[in-house]
Amino acid sequence: MHRKDVDPEGSPSARFGILVRRMRDERGWTQDELGERAGCSGTHISAVETGRRPPTLRFARGLDKAMGTGDLFERHSKAVRHTTLIEGFPACVAHERRAAEIRLFEIGIIPGLLQTPAYARAIAEGDVRRGNITPEQADDRVAFLARRQAAVQRPNPPTMIVVLDESCIRRPVGGEKVMREQLDHVATFATLPNTMLQVAPYIMGELRPFNLPITLLTLPDRNVVAYAESQAQGHLEREAGLVMATLADYHQLQAESLSQADSVAMINQLRKGTP
Question: Which domains does the chain have, with CATH numbers?
């Protein structure tokens, strides 16, 4: 039986799933057998083992009872629940690592894959000051982003098509030096052979089709998945009809946005301090 490989660096949920699989294998149980003992289905066990479903506290306690592991799984589940990665995002990152094409639309901040270390650090430290995350979680977030960026800077990198709402390049983050360095990085990104960059200007108004950040990933088999997130939750959409509708809206967004040349010109004006 083919077993899906799970990257332990992918997310805390992935690490939890690897632990469940290892402990289950040591006992010689199938997923259905563990599910029966833990009060859930074998399908649920599979989703947790592959990192597709984060463990609840109740589920973790059920595992501890079924396997006689004290509070082992309960303790590990707390690490998953305390992570700064919102629900749905780890699954998106897993697809991102192997995507042939990545399409992004972002509002308000530069998207993670284009962030400089200083810009990413400033965003994370802002969350620390607001009390949303701990300093340790901020460190984890910045390190995780660095791994994401490294994963797409591979030999034969994916095509990357990025549309930035104008607010992304006008919103100051981290002070003048950090912001200037970030704009330099975005302008350099636009010169790469595998990239395309556009700015969706404010004057687009109601013609802008998205009010939330959107990610579209074309996988090696040419299937496309879409990811969108709100403040507290992300959702990975695989249903072809819905994904194709989102892709059509993305094409409309590109048609209404500035050309790459005009987009870079706007960024260069901001780099020079010209309003």
Answer: 12-81 (1.10.260.40), 89-271 (3.30.870.10)
Within 8 A by CB and 6+ apart from 131, the residues are: none
Q: Is 54 exposed, middle or buried (0-12, 13-18, 19+ CB in 10 A)?
A: buried
Per-residue CA distances from 34 to 41, 42, 74 (Å)? 8, 7, 16
CA separation for the pair 229, 215 (Å, rounded)? 9
Chain length of the chain: 275
| Nearest Cα residue to 250 out of 100, 109, 103 | 103
Distance CA 96, CA 87 (A): 16
As a whole number of angstroms, the distance between CA 71 and CA 94 comes to 29
Q: HEC profile for 153-164?
A: CCCCCCEEEEEE
Question: Which pTM was predicted?
Answer: 0.72
Check whether 273 has a pLDDT greater than 80: no
Cα gap 132→124, rounded to integer Å: 10
Over residues 66-108, the pLDDT tens digits come to: 999 999 998 888 766 655 566 667 778 888 989 999 999 999 9
d(CA 190, CA 28) in angstroms, rounded, equals: 53
Q: What is the pLDDT of residues 158-181, one digit of tens each?
A: 999 999 999 999 999 999 999 999
pLDDT tens sequence across 16-34: 899 999 999 999 999 999 9
**CA 226, CA 91: separation in Å to the nearest integer?**
11
Q: How far apart are the C-alpha atoms of 120 and 118, rounded to whole Å?
A: 5
Of 233, 222, 232, 188, which is closest to residue 88 (Cα–Cα)? 233
113 CB-contact burial (10 Å; exposed 0-12 / middle 13-18 / buried 19+): buried
